[in-house]
Amino acid sequence: MIVKTLTMYIKMVNNNRGVTEWMDFLSEELGELKSKGLYRRLRRLSGPHKTRMVIGGRECLVLSSNNYLGLTGHPEVKEAAMQAINRWGTGAGGSRLTTGNFDPHEELEQEIARFKRTQGAIVFGSGYAANLGVIQALVGSVDAVLGDFLNHASIIDGCRLSRAQFLVYRHRDMDQLERKLKQASGCRRRLIVTDGVFSMDGDLAPLPDIVALAERYGAIVMVDDAHATGVYGSRGAGTVDHFGLEGRVQVQMGTLSKALGSVGGYVAGNGKLIDYLVNRARSFIFSTAPPPASMGAALAALRIVERQPEIRAQLWSNARYLREGLKNLGYRVPEEDSPIIPVVIGDEAGTMRLAETLLEEGIFAVGIRPPAVPRGTSRIRVTVMANHTREDLEQALSAFATQGRYTGII
To answer: 86: exposed, middle or buried (C-beta count within 10 Å: 0-12, 13-18, 19+)?
Structure first.
């Protein structure tokens, strides 16, 4: 009995020691993040998603949203979501392959396919889930997947989890991509995956050159149009539309959560691809379907994009006005033509100091640090919405001028 009690006591002490060591590890890691200026915290935003929101009790001008067309608050989009709730309820209740496949899911997929000029489309719960599921389904251990160095984290994670040979080429470096394609010549399949619009810099992938190389070396092309859907192209259909590459990009992925003002991701392509993903994409098969209300909202937003190109035109007008204004103030802003405007500061501490002083002046513009961007390129990621007014943009420029001088950045 004594031996048994002693054994139990030793086991308890060891268990407690393990928990203590684990808690010490967490504290040390958090302390290191804080010391390096990399600690992150959540901010509560109050009220509907608009150009002005209450943040920490203060009304702020929002310059950090991916709601590019301002459609989250559009009356038609909200009404479509409410109608869907009234008819189908608040949740799907299961995966698409069991009890979660409703009329709004299939109607939206048909509309996306028509919009993207493909044979079919499939909707996922998020853009992240779409990238993970699609890449893992398309390539495996005997294949190669090639990706841009600045691809989104969801693409990188999908490539790593696929178990394929993962070859990274320098950002937009087509010479190195060609060398990597030659290196992968012995693989069963070669998949090139790229962002259409890179989310932290706002620059475009050289998609025509990528497609030309893919056709030369027998590779498949997948483009992530999360930040291009609804924004780029003559019809707002993304980078394939923008470059006139319809029919030459095999996999078009995008999100419903940015310009389309809802939530979810999608993949558009030929009918066999879509049928294959229904059967093989694990993040589709084993996830509860997106709520019908989200699908109804996205469908309404997509139809607004097609019917009202003037909203997209206003977005571009606002983006060009603010970009030029920031450059004239002396900020380091790339020349790219995009609603994503990176104001590059460099060091993490200076970036976060400027973000905090802007917030004190009523401007919510998020500081971006590693690992989201390479070290030494920390920036304020400014994004513009179509429903920002000229007065909003003037207020933003005034605050950037005042706080840039105060912090010594300009």
So the answer is: exposed
